[in-house]
């Protein structure tokens, strides 16, 4: 893969002075590398197999262009609409997911800049339609959803009208800790593959991707004193995200990516389904 990266960058940047520094870990499928071109550092992303199932690259590029005007992300230098390869300025610092303490106030500041920007994404996120699309992909791959999943999803769908009725704003769409980079002073946010117009609490729920308590803490900082309604939406959106990533993980399993990426996507999917049930029960019991 490193040879592919070097050859791509020689072609894109029209120079032989290219070097791969390291592969940056994070995410379930993309290959992202820190590289040097003419002595300047960049990141180069090669989307993983079958990523076109999940991301519209034209929408992604348009959303990146919009969010770059806010001064909270790195600048994209090159974007290939056909294959999704992307070259961007390198950001010094560490993903929040690698730190023991998070700068919650700075995360909230960035999210509020996004949510209150008045920008309109190129697309609505359309979570319920997206979930149907993922289920259809699995059906075409010969997968049969379990009764347990179908019962859980049906129970969650009882909140469809409520969730779709929330005000939609520009959202990051995958605002988990690994997508925030911090150098001890400055914080930026990266990776706008799943951006769309949506309920702002969706982003806060994404921050619970590693630990539920981290998303809950962010909710408390964002709203200071979250209402019962805000807490309900937080748990419901986190439940949805677990159902969504359950399907994504199973697609990767069915496509043979557990072997190629050395990640047990069937186990990942199972964990997401258990979390979805736990979160839905929080709402039903409240």
Question: In brief, what are we looking at here?
Answer:
The protein has about 290 residues and is α+β, with helices and mostly antiparallel strands. It has helices at about 1-15, 55-70, 105-115, 125-140, 145-155, 160-165, 200-205, 210-225, 230-255, 255-260, 265-285, and strands at about 20-25, 30-35, 40-45, 75-80, 85-90, 95, 170, 180, 185-190, 195-200.
Structural class by SSE content: alpha+beta
Q: Determine the fraction of residues in helical runs and give it as a percent range.
A: 40-55%
Count the strands? 10
* CATH structural architecture of the largest domain: Alpha-Beta Complex
Question: Overall 3D geometry?
Answer: globular
Which value, in Å, is the CA radius of gyration?
A: 19 Å
Query: Which spans of ≥5 residues are poorly predicted at pLDDT below 50?
Result: none
Overall average pLDDT:
95
Kindly give the count of domains: 2
CATH homologous superfamily heading of the largest domain = Aminoglycoside phosphotransferase (APH), C-terminal lobe
CATH class of the largest domain: Alpha Beta
Oligomer: single chain
Strand order of the largest sheet: 1-2-3-5-4
The amount of beta strand, in percent, is 15-25%
Secondary-structure element string: HEEEHEEEHHHHEEEEHHHHH
CATH topology of the largest domain: Aminoglycoside 3'-phosphotransferase, Chain: A, domain 2
Number of helices in the DSSP assignment: 11
Distance between the termini: 49 Å
Largest sheet: 5 strands, antiparallel
